[in-house]
Amino acid sequence: MERLTGLDAGFLYMETPRQHLHTMKIAVLDPATMPDGYSFGRVKEVLAARLHLLPPFRQRLVNVPLGLHHPLWIEDPDFDLDHHIRHTTLPAPGGQHELDALVSRVASTPLDRRRPLWELWVAEGMAGGRVGFVTKIHHCAADGVKAAELLVNVLDTEADAPDPPPPARPWQPEPVPGRAARVWAALRERVRQLLGIPALVRRTVAGIRGVVTRRRAGEPTPPTPFTAPNLAFNRALTPQRVFSSTTLSLTEIKDTKTVLDATVNDVVLAVCAGALRRWLAQHDGLPDRPLIAGIPVSTRNPARQGLANSVSNLFTAIPVHVADPVERIRIIHDSMRHAREQHNVLGAEMLADWSELTPSGPFAAGVRLYSRLGLADRHRPPINLVISNVPGPREPLYVAGARLDGLWSMGPILENVGLNITVWSYLDGMHFGLVACPDTLADLDVITAGLPEALAELRAAF
Fold first, then answer.
1. Are residues 177 and 245 in the same domain?
2. Are residues 113 and 43 in the same domain?
3. Per-residue CA distances from 379 to 46, 228, 229, 313, 386 (Å)
4. 22 and 86 share a domain?
């Protein structure tokens, strides 16, 4: 039995019928090299043999009475692997477009909180005999870096690698703890947290004072939330999602960052800026100031490797109003540097520390009311979009002898922040996954198609 951290539990409290807080990992495998050949039954056998390497897959939530503390994870006494694995066949021609359409459908429904919070959809019918795998997992169980760690646990670096050894101890389900035990444990932990509030307040005040001192000294600062322009997709959500993907050359992106003395992430943001600029211009909505993007950054450290979420956020400018692509990347580079400096002054763990004190009942009720009343349509967005970049493996990977050909990811969108662009690298590819609400951004594929054009424009400029 293990309690969710405040940061993990926050993804539960923020979930509503319109705001789904799951993430998705999309993989395409070529089973041609599988020693025993491919079958759906073989998929279940392989996953069952690796479940001990995926701890969240057999854990489910148990709530604390009266919302006195964050929920608990227990080893699900009713775990049934067949409930979590789904089988489907893509329509012809079985390409990336058809796989993206499946991801869109799967992303549009929430996970069942009565069971472990994940699903795996196996999509046959892909061109060339390939097979698509669409995994949906709740954000409270894994952020991008944690998901990458779980993925590495079940993949091999050689096609003929042996099966993983069995667990040291057989898996044991847990009984659901009694009501009194959950209440007593929650009260004890809350008292310990209350004793730590004075130290947390001191750290917070010191961080805020440091930011104020920087501003008074004239130091450049990152953009401030709620100063972003209001775009068409910065609206209240509906339950539906649309997903779109593409792949760019990692070699070209690295060449670009070297020439421009930037980072890979700077180039990724500049490419997104170029694609968004084209889309906004087509819709006569090009603003006269930059967009604001939230950039998730990992705060994981060796002492806290087991956490599901170790993440904070930076806010950076996305200068879609600037015509010169090289100037755009220089603005982004400076904005990211200032955002990191301010983030370091505030303290990377501040968000996680305060989230431990979140009152679950009032917070979740407030989020549901905000969503139900459509209040996101009545104020300026805090930010315009989220852009996440997770570095992935550079060597070919295999599972049960099948080669991993492609890997994409999808993060959640939020009320008033209706676009998420998540990038995972694998081999020589930068795999972009975009998600939006089709009722506020019906032509997401236009932005996706603009990404390779924006990279070509940036490379041509220098």
1. no
2. yes
3. 49, 11, 11, 21, 18
4. yes
End-to-end CA distance of the chain: give it in Å, rounded.
Answer: 56
**Which residues of the chain have a pLDDT value below 50?**
none
Same domain, 456 and 317: yes
Question: 92 in a domain, yes or no?
Answer: yes
Overall size of the chain counted in residues: 462
Q: What is the pLDDT of residues 186-199, one digit of tens each?
A: 999 999 988 888 98
Q: Is 363 exposed, middle or buried (0-12, 13-18, 19+ CB in 10 A)?
A: middle
Q: CA 276 from chain center: how many Å?
A: 20
Residue tagged active-site, from 139, 333, 338, 431: 139
Residue 254 is assigned to a structural domain of this protein: yes
Tokens for 218, please give them. Answer: 């004239």
Residue 328 lies in a domain: yes
Active site residue 97: no
pLDDT at 212: 82
> Over the stretch 382-437, which tens digit does the pLDDT of each residue have?
999 999 998 888 889 998 899 999 999 999 999 999 999 999 999 999 999 999 99
- Domain residues for 64? 2-184
DSSP strand E in 353-455: where? 385-390, 398-399, 402-410, 419-426, 429-436
* 159 and 268, same domain (yes or no): no
Q: Do residue 92 and residue 156 come from a single domain?
A: yes
Q: Which residue has the tokens 């495998």?
A: 29
Do 311 and 143 form a contact (C-beta atoms < 8 A)? yes
| Paired tokens of 72 | 């608990």
Q: Please state, in angstroms and rounded to a whole number, the distance separating the CA atoms of residues 394 and 141.
A: 25
**Total structural domains in the chain?**
2
Q: What is the pLDDT of residue 36?
A: 81
Residues 6+ apart with CB under 8 A from 234: 228, 376, 381, 384, 416, 417, 418, 440
